[in-house]
Amino acid sequence: MATISIKNITKSYGKTEVIHGVSLDVADGEFIVIVGPSGCGKSTLLRMVAGLERITGGTIEIGGRVVNDLEPRERDIAMVFQNYALYPHMSVFDNMAYGLKIANKSKDEIRERVGKAARMLQLEPYLERKPRALSGGQRQRVAMGRALVRDPAVFLFDEPLSNLDAKLRVQMRLEIKEMQRSVETTALYVTHDQVEAMTLADRLVVMNGGVAEQIDTPMAVYDRPATRFVAGFIGSPAMNIMKGAASGREFTLEGGTTLPLGEAALSGEGRPVLFGVRPEHLRLVPDSEASIRLKVRAIETLGADTLAHGRFDGAGAEGGEFIARLPGKTKLAEGDLLPLAMDPGSIHLFDAESGKRI
Amino acid sequence: MEKRVTFDNRLLPYLLLAPQLLVTIVFFFWPAGQALYQSLLLPDPFGLGARFVWFSNFEYLFNDRYYLQAFVTTAVFTFFVTLVSMTVALFFAVLADQVIKGAGVYKTLLIWPYAVAPAVAGVMWLFMFQPSIGVLAFYMKALGVNWNPVLDSTQAMTLVIAAAAWKQISYNFLFFLAGLQAIPKSLIEAAAIDGAGRWHRFRTIIFPLLSPTTFFLLVVNIVYAFFETFGVIHTMTAGGPGRSTTILVYKVFSDGFVGQDLGSSAAQSVILMVVVGLLTIIQFRFIERRVHY
Ligand SMILES: Nc1ncnc2c1ncn2[C@@H]1O[C@H](COP(=O)(O)OP(=O)(O)O)[C@@H](O)[C@H]1O
Ligand SMILES: [Mg+2]
Fold this sequence. Notes:
The complex is a heterodimer. Chain A is α+β, with helices and mostly antiparallel strands. Helices cover 24% and strands 34% of the residues of chain A. Chain A has helices at residues 42-50, 92-102, 107-120, 136-149, 166-183, 194-200, 218-223, 228-233, and strands at 4-13, 16-26, 31-35, 57-62, 65-66, 77-80, 154-158, 186-191, 203-208, 211-216, 240-247, 250-253, 258-260, 271-277, 282-284, 292-301, 305-312, 321-327, 337-342, 347-351. The radius of gyration of chain A is 24 Å and the shape is elongated. The two termini of chain A are 38 Å apart. By secondary structure, chain B is mainly alpha-helical. Chain B has two domains: 12-52, no CATH class; 66-292, MetI-like (MetI-like fold), CATH 1.10.3720.10. Chain B has helices at 12-38, 56-62, 65-98, 103-111, 118-129, 135-142, 153-181, 185-193, 198-227, 230-236, 248-258, 262-288; strands spanning 41-43, 50-52. In chain B, α3 runs parallel beside α7 and α8 crosses α9. The chains are: A alpha+beta, B mainly alpha. The structure holds adenosine-5'-diphosphate and magnesium ion. Magnesium ion (MG) binds next to α1 of chain A. Chain A: It is found in: Cell inner membrane. Chain A: Residues 4-234 form the ABC transporter domain.
């Protein structure tokens, strides 16, 4: 159990800088998820915490101790890899006991700790098997067991679920969360899957291009995305974002259509902004109350919800692509013109240049 | 679905196989048959005729002190050639596996010795360690070593082992390097996080995962030391001093072509054939169950 403090961390490979100064303070027992698109530097950041990559600039503290120059084994961490990295020539028991044997624990203690982890992860029947005789989900559990038995200060996970099928992924997601809650060990968890990120995290770190764009609770990230990137990345289907100019209480699209800004009103005239509204914050209303009319081009019926894809009436030649998420029972047909209103307070404005939230 | 190729002409498949079969028959089965037949004959002193003597050539061999000594010599020679060439190769491969810059150059340089013929390798080492003109012999003498492999049988043995092992290092290196690179990096990283130091990681993760490669190379190196080192021995020591480097293949040659005892030489060849056969069986058996962890 420990706090982690990452201060202005940078990482360069040769002349290329891939992490551009990330700072993060993690409380004891907190579950932090680092989420972002592929190649944004999530793994690199995690591996620097683990001690598998050299730190180019900044400092990392674990439990108040600067670990920059410590070997992985001196950092009191455990890591679960995407490909599980189980030792193929050792039984499940030996895989889990490997670290304990190195730490010179007594035979009895090893048996007890491995036994406890195996019980927790329902691995007891498989202790004598080799990894290749296990299913994907079981291997995943062994990898977690190996981290668990060492009772480290920090758990590090690098996309641990991405090799599993969809159903198993949901199940293991819950198990990881439960496990972390019960042992109360600080965890850093890397994923590119936003659903995984939202459901697991106490706090999210949304990364893009080597920068942490926002660090906050999942709900705060969803409600008040700090940048245009975060707005588009978190939430499914993605937020509708349109270019235009804001003047007082009105937003004028590039095509000339105006939309009311409501509470989001800005002072100043004709400021170039990005206007965002989530698909789930649109409602079907009588024509007289409509602020947008959506010309439906395709319909996806998901059961609980129906997604209407289209462009809104009056959009210019380009852009204006729009998605509305409506109740599942809504009767829709392609070519319909849907009168829609936005929920109050659901409008997000971002500076057109910096992409920062206004 | 019929996936196999089918031939309309019944003769064609045999025709296509013929060249390969012919080569095998002419260069393997025929001489092997000859050796087998020869091993049962005793030629007269002038080489004009031969008498069929059943297994007396073999009987004679197994009562021959020198033949049994050659077995021991071969065992010692093979053991050290295999040990030295594999250990050194593994050491270089582990180093090369960690090199990031200039790995290509490093590998190419290490592969070169493989292109050198055994006899040439022998001559090279002979020159370097020749007691009166050799470069390295000069330094060894300067260090106070009484270096004279022409007279000292232990030194002669050391020298042929070194030359034979040196030549095989490249081959072993290539396989070990490929084996090392096939081990996922994350395994090593996981072990490092689990607290294992360099040596412990090597001993408990890397070496066990290399064992299929190691076993394969073990057989290949034994076969090499047994059968392909004739050139090295012939150029460096000619089996001497005092038969101390006469390994089995060399004895086949020296008894048959120098000593003109063709019957015994043929019998020795047959015994060697049996040895190769056994080694091959071991290897095939193993390859069938390749993944053994
Ligand atoms: N060993 C390396 N050498 C050079 N560039 C690397 C190396 N490892 C990663 N990178 C680069 O660093 C960036 C971040 O990589 P990574 O952290 O693996 O991304 P993620 O895990 O978010 O998908 C990528 O652009 C990748 O190409
Ligand atoms: Mg990654």
